[in-house]
Specification:
CATH architecture: 3-Layer(aba) Sandwich
Distance between the termini: 29 Å
Number of strands: 4
Domain Phosphotyrosine protein phosphatase I: 4-142
Number of helices: 5
Order of helices and strands: EHEHEHEHH
Strand order of the largest sheet: 2-1-3-4
CATH topology: Rossmann fold
CATH class: Alpha Beta
Organism: Polynucleobacter aenigmaticus
CATH superfamily: Response regulator
Keywords: Arsenical resistance
Strand content: 5-15%
InterPro entries: Ptyr_pPase (IPR023485), Ptyr_pPase_sf (IPR036196)
Structural class: alpha/beta
Pfam families: LMWPc
Length: 163
């Protein structure tokens, strides 16, 4: 079975994109290899996002905030899909992606900005995780070899924002 490389982009690559990478890499379909990056990566991954990624089955040592520049280098893996998960990254001028991957914006509020108790913060991260999981489940059920950017974008618009 062919696997598809999917890159999740967010400005700081510390929360939403990390969750996308973890969900894709551990998806039960086995169809995806997840990656994540940011336009202006931070110095670390959000601890709640890291904990969730580890719970999903990711190796904590693999969770790093990195620049999207690493994925345009000649030896970088070729991406099949590129998905922005924050509004800032969606509006930025992205690098040229070799191979012309299908692209889409699956925007979610930044859970790391939630103020409150640890439970309220964790709930915000779980909401993003569940929304990304639903979209990945739909994506996995599609004929991926025929998928284009319009169809990829439609996955997001077909699910309510709080999903």
């Amino acid at each position: 079975m062919k696997t598809y490389n999917i890159l999740f982009l967010c400005t700081h690559n510390s929360a939403r994109s990390i969750l996308g990478e973890a969900l894709a890499s551990t998806h039960p379909s086995g169809k995806f290899v997840g990656y994540s990056a940011g336009s202006t990566p931070g110095t670390s991954v959000n601890s709640i996002a890291a904990d969730i990624a580890v719970e999903l089955g990711m190796d904590r040592a693999l969770l790093k905030s990195k620049s999207w520049d690493v994925y345009v280098e000649p030896n970088a893996p070729k991406m099949d899909f590129i998905i922005t998960v924050c509004d800032n990254a969606a509006g930025e001028v992205c690098p040229f992606w070799p191979g012309q991957p299908a692209t889409a914006h699956w925007g979610f509020p930044d859970p790391s900005l939630v103020q409150g108790t640890d439970l309220e913060k964790r709930t915000a991260f779980n909401t993003v995780m569940n929304g990304l999981k639903k979209r990945l489940d739909i994506l996995a059920a599609m004929p991926l070899e025929k998928l284009d950017s319009m169809t990829l974008k439609a996955i997001h618009t077909s699910i309510p924002a709080q999903a």
